[in-house]
TrEMBL record:
Keyword entries, A-Z: 4Fe-4S, Iron, Iron-sulfur, Metal-binding, NADP, Oxidoreductase
Any Pfam family: Fer4_20
Cofactor(s) listed: [4Fe-4S] cluster
EC class name: oxidoreductase
Protein's recorded name: Glutamate synthase (NADPH/NADH) small chain
Annotated organism of origin: Sphingobium subterraneum
Lineage, opening ranks: Bacteria, Pseudomonadati, Pseudomonadota, Alphaproteobacteria, Sphingomonadales
GO MF entry, a single one: metal ion binding
Domain FAD/NAD(P)-binding stretches: 151-458
Record domain Dihydroprymidine dehydrogenase: where: 27-136
NCBIfam families: gltD_gamma_fam (TIGR01318)
EC number(s) reported in the record: 1.4.1.13, 1.4.1.14
């Protein structure tokens, strides 16, 4: 009987691909970790305990078949491992790079609980699909038998792209509308290259374009067409715009020059990485070079901002967060990466005013202390009287999260119902909005969340849309007409 290639977690330790030295990586936007060599990927995969109830899969929003493709990897059957990982995810190499595995699959690995350190699932997932691209195993998107029906997808982020891919494979004509000049949404313009190099996103987008999906870039619903006009053109619509409106800060001086929104800052940086002309870099308004930078927030967007500022040559970079390290919502791995690169964290601190007249010169800060738990169960931060101090700042970046934009007004469709949080209201049994034939998925429904949840929502809404389109075809209803209840 051949030796079992698995269950080697006692003899083999947890291992990650090597990270480039912080001094080296702090000067460019290339990804900070090299990919596994094949031997290391097989070795790490062989640590999987193949447990009967795989908590890694249970806690993955996509319910990826993680133990199965780890075993295939350990056995050297990489093509089969890729094909299996591809059955549940449209973007496994992207999730392998940017998912917070420490809170999802790896954080719930059984051998992590036993004290042996989780299998480094994300790194293996990235390796499998990067290998598939390199070896030519990633097959083109082939459209199914034409249905004669057309679908419009508003938003070219992970939810929209996932749905577009599946519906095209089902034989529908698919048009994707996006306000930016490149598809990908936050994958393209919100996440820096040191976490997700842009050719990784663009090769996915190009595969969809080659598969016959029509992209309408620089297209803004409400400006270039109303939602009703798109409904006349298509048999069904998906709204997957995400949430982009920056949460504000109520403090004196917040409108001072040099106090900017995180997404504006990150988008400018990513455009520059593509080689685009960026006026806000030329005039310095969204460039950190030579400046004292203060980033306000504790999530992954804040980590993206502080680490981008380091790479732009900031004089100093500080991150203000109103809670302590243990209560920070962002990935602890990202915090560690930022500290290695020279970011200073100012814990239990919050801004109370922004100093300067025409341009910000400093941030007045108060120390915070953690009081009683709030509605979420987390201890609520409260000001510590008499503890104010000032941090010098030439650029302040607000990274406090995102809210929905002004729907339904933005789309010119008063029929669209929204929740009290401004997200789109859907029937959760069908994922349809209050407007017939208009579905919604991703952050515009659930609020700011993870890319992996957007992919899951895109996968789920596909089934509902396909069922709706089949019923519409069977009843002989044309685009712009309603399906009888």
């Amino acid at each position: 009987m051949a030796d079992n290639p698995m269950l080697k977690f006692v003899a083999l330790g947890q291992d990650y691909p090597d990270k480039r030295d912080a001094a080296e990586r702090g000067h460019d936007f290339a990804e900070i970790s090299r990919s596994f060599a094949v031997e290391k990927a097989e070795e790490q995969a062989s640590r999987c305990s193949q447990c009967g109830v795989p908590y890694c899969s249970t806690h993955c929003p996509l319910h990826n078949h993680i133990p199965d493709w780890l075993r295939l990897t350990a056995e050297g059957r990489l093509r089969e491992a890729y094909e299996l990982s591809n059955t549940t995810s449209t973007m496994p190499e992207i999730c392998g790079r940017i998912c917070p595995q420490d809170r999802l699959c790896e954080g719930n690995c059984v051998i992590e609980f036993s004290g042996h350190g989780a299998v480094t699932i994300g790194s293996v997932e990235k390796f499998i699909t990067d290998t598939a691209w390199k070896e030519g195993w990633v097959e083109p998107l082939v459209a199914g038998k034409p249905t004669g029906q057309s679908v419009g997808v508003i938003g070219a982020g992970p939810a929209g792209l996932t749905t577009a891919e599946y519906l095209r494979a089902a034989g529908h004509e698919v048009h994707v509308y996006d306000r930016h000049d490149r598809a990908g949404g936050l994958l393209t313009y919100g996440i820096p290259g040191f976490k997700l190099e842009k050719d990784v996103v663009m090769r996915r987008v190009n595969r969809l374009k080659d598969g016959g999906i029509v992209f309408h870039e620089n297209f803004e619903v409400g400006r270039d067409a109303t939602l009703d006009q798109l409904r006349e053109k298509h048999d069904a619509i998906l709204i997957a715009t995400g949430v982009y409106k920056a949460r504000g800060i109520k403090a004196p001086g917040v409108g001072t020059g040099g106090v900017v929104a995180a997404l504006d800052y990150l988008t400018a940086s990513n455009k520059a990485s593509f080689g685009d002309a960026v006026p806000e870099h030329e005039d310095g308004s969204l460039l950190a070079a030579g400046k004292n930078v203060v980033v306000i927030g504790g999530g992954d967007t804040a980590m993206d901002c502080v680490r981008t500022a380091i790479r732009q040559g900031a004089k100093s970079v500080k991150c203000l967060y109103r809670r302590d390290r243990e209560n920070m919502p962002g990935s602890q791995r990202e915090v560690a990466n930022a500290e290695e690169e020279g970011v200073e964290f100012v814990w239990l601190s919050a801004p109370v005013a922004f100093e300067g007249t025409d341009h910000v010169t400093g941030v007045k800060v108060t120390k915070m202390r953690l009081g009683q738990p709030d509605a979420s169960g987390r201890r609520a931060p409260e000001p510590d009287p008499g503890s104010e101090f000032t941090l010098e700042a030439d650029l302040v970046i607000k990274a406090l999260g995102f809210d929905p934009e002004d729907l339904p007004k933005m789309f010119g469709s008063d029929e669209l119902s929204v929740t009290r949080w401004g997200t789109l209201r859907v029937d959760h049994k069908t994922m349809m909005t209050s407007v017939d034939g208009v579905f919604a998925a991703g952050d515009i429904v659930r609020g700011a969340s993870l890319v992996v949840w957007a992919i899951r929502d895109g996968r789920d809404v596909t089934e509902h849309m396909h069922r709706y389109l089949k019923a519409k075809a069977a009843s002989g209803v044309k685009a712009g007409e309603r399906v009888a209840a």
